[in-house]
Amino acid sequence: MAAVELLDLKNNPATPPTDERAWRAWAESHIAGLQETLAAAQQQARLAEARLAGLLEIMPGSNLLLSADGQTVAANQSGLEWLSNTEETDCATALQHHFQQPTEFTAQTRQFRANGKSVRGTELLLATGQVVELDYLILGDGSVGHLLRLQPQPGTALPAQLAVEQEASPAFYETILQELPVEVAVFDAQHRYRFVNTKGILDAATRAWVIGHDDFEYCAQFQRPQELAVQRRQCFEQALQTRTAVAWEEIQETAAGRQCMLRHFLPVFSPDGSLHMMVGIGEDITERRQAEKQLADQRAFYEFVLDQLPCDVGVFDHQFRYLFVNASGIKDPEMRKWVIGRDNYEYFARTQRPVAMAHERHAQFQLAVQERSLVTYEETFLRPDGDRHQYRCLQPVFHPDGSLHMILGYGLDVTERVATERALRHAKLAAESAVRARELFLANMSHEIRTPMNAILGMSQLLAKTPLTPTQSSYQQAITTSADNLLVIINDILDLSKLEAGKMVLEQVGFGPAHLLAQVEQTLHYKAAEKGLYLNTQVDPGLPAVLLGDPYRITQVLLNLAGNSIKFTEKGGVLVSCEVVDAGAPEGQVDVLFRVADTGIGIEPQFLAHIFQEFSQEDASVTRKFGGTGLGLPICRNLVKLMGGDVQLESEKHRGTITQFTLRLPVGTAQDLLPQAQLPEDSPLRQHLRHKHVLLVEDNRFNRQIAKTFLQQAQVQVTEAVHGAEALTLAKEQTFDLILMDIQMPILDGYGATEALRQQLQLTTPIIALTANAIKGEREKCLAAGMNGYLAKPFQEAELLRVVSEWVVPQVEAVAPEPDSTLCPALPLYQTSELLKVGQGDLSFVTFMLETFVESSEEALQELAQGQKEGNIAKLKSTAHTLKPSLAHLHVWHLLPAVTELDQWQGEFQAGPVTTLVSTITQRLREVISQIQKALAEAPVSATE
């Protein structure tokens, strides 16, 4: 039972068990509980001591906490030092000893006396120059303690005649409250003011009056709104009932304007639980609210502006969560509110969009952060009413320390652009299909018309070599003239097609302007003479003897213009002239004015504006009377524009027409002139052609007869074949010096026959294409098939013999081809005319470019070999793409089709066809390289190469 009494078990409401073992367990549990309570109390005590020590330490001066009997309970460091210097054990003795004055320290009166006199106040101003502040407080055990504070007061020499009464003075703390930048008021339980600082009420008389009055009386006295007192009373009661602080905002109208106050009621309760006081605090937050309103207005303004933008705008935090999105990005206002703080995975799940899109966005976000720069990509939303395409941009923004701050995303709706691009692609395919159809039509038309035209002109030439009566000769001339006119129309159509496609290529060779005009006069002399018209040419004496340009195209324009003048002139004549125009041309160049003037019927003024339109003539009567297609002038104007000039036309009805154009041409030298090919009967070339054996493969009997006759008259032995299969049989049985191969033939056409001759028979005999298809690209196609040269039908006798001689008598170097559009030199595998034009005739530049081409081509061959070995179609296509510009600049036409095919290869690497294509390119490119290296080693580059 002693143990029970010791543990105070009698006062424990729980009855202990009677069993000893159970009782022991119960007692141990109870003891453990008491130990926990004790530990908690000790912890609270230590916490209180720590707080008290901290409070004493931060207070200025020497601070000591004394018990009622004067014993030191706690002190700060300065107070301890002061106490240790007194060499006394208690504070009262220490004070008496220190100040050498009689001192009483009585717990009952809580009064400090000095020299037997008591003075109301809280400060003792001692003669030693120290100020003693004394206050009292209730200690933790319920006893009364005193807080002694000693502060130096230099310059003070007054006697210590002050005393402290039993209640501490509020002067110190009141000073603090008065200096606070907030309103402070204290109310009693009856809502009456007990204290208010100067911040709360500025007027001292009002502060004195308000003590003991409540807010209703205050508002009535100073004519404040009654609602103010009602609101404060409600908040007072709320704080009292909830026993917690209450805050509210109060709006007051003042002379300075509306004032916004943030007020608090903090209830303070006595130990018995009753309300001791209510502390009110008021803070003027007018500026804060104005700033917040300004920020809110600015935010609303910026959000309004962003919402009006026609693009999506979104701002994301460092975890890729939405901070803001405008109305264009998410149109639903509720969804815009919901998405803030959420990422794209949550947003896409909410809107039931594919999670793959969220993965893609997340990957783009990570890429932007990784690259630390703007990232763009396209995003497609699938919708029932049509797909929506967005062009997205992600711009990361970083903190100064390099960490991610936010990501600014914006997107442009490019649905219309995508739709337009698709439409353009379809239109492009349709246009390309139309172009292919037109090219096919032109090719067929060229072939179908040129084939009989070749027979007509050829037979006419053969007929002219026979004895004819004057009447028969006139018939022959009529046939030839009609055929020539028809051929001009065909060439006009083909030239128009080339010009529209931008495939017309100009030459840059030397020519004599006087010789050029003489050719024009010679060509049109008989036509003018037939109509009884004069045709004169006039050359400016100051014109350079040699100019650089495209003499064939200039001649074509002059022939067309002069031919029109003769056609539309009934009497008088035509004058063709050229002269130098002083128009400030650079050194080494001249401006040459070409003019064609006639005395013809002229043109009505209203028609002049439409004269250069295609298929356009003044009226139907012109076509009936004079003929023509209306293509001549448009073609002339396009050709002149291609050469850097423009055609100008002046005309007056029944007073003639003047047509002129000006070209800026470089001045050349005699070395720039091309030697003219002449094949008289006693020409050495004809001597060398004798007894050469030629295989003529042609399905048209008339064309075969014409070519055979031209060749046999030059003592050339001719063997005929009507199709490609027969040519293969003959080539197996006989050896030929040259093969003339028609393209379009039955059984086996020219392309198939050439391939079989090259691949199956491994034949190296030169093969010259004879084709009626003169459109752009046909020559390259023939060369790509393995042919060595190209001759367009209809052809003249001299042209045929010249092409044949170039391959069967290559040592005859004195004969060079004329600059004719229907005849392209076949012997050289490349041309330097374009390089000469770019380098303005500088041969060293041409040499350098040829050496560079050889070097880059060697590298290309290595790349092709490596790409073929690795089966890397991307490398092969890249190499082909790199080769194309150089081949075009050197006019290596026979190699371009194969290179283009490899460059545009679709699909994966296919060993069979790709290997064949690469082998073809490699073989032909080596031939070009070998020819260039040989030319560079033997002789300097010339303009005629």
From TrEMBL:
Membrane topology per the entry is:
Multi-pass membrane protein
Q: Coiled coil as a keyword?
A: yes
Broadest EC class assigned to this enzyme: transferase
Positions of post-translational Phosphohistidine modification: 881
Task: List, for all copies, the residue spans of the domain called Response regulatory.
Answer: 693-808
Which SUPFAM superfamilies does the UniProt entry name for this protein? ATPase domain of HSP90 chaperone/DNA topoisomerase II/histidine kinase, CheY-like, Histidine-containing phosphotransfer domain, HPT domain, Homodimeric domain of signal transducing histidine kinase, PYP-like sensor domain (PAS domain)
The chain's coiled-coil residues are 31-58
Q: Which CDD domains match?
A: HATPase_EvgS-ArcB-TorS-like (cd16922), HisKA (cd00082), REC_hyHK_CKI1_RcsC-like (cd17546)
One GO cellular component assignment for this chain's record is: plasma membrane
Location in the cell: Cell membrane
The protein's assembly and partners = At low DSF concentrations, interacts with RpfF.
Q: What is this protein called?
A: Sensory/regulatory protein RpfC
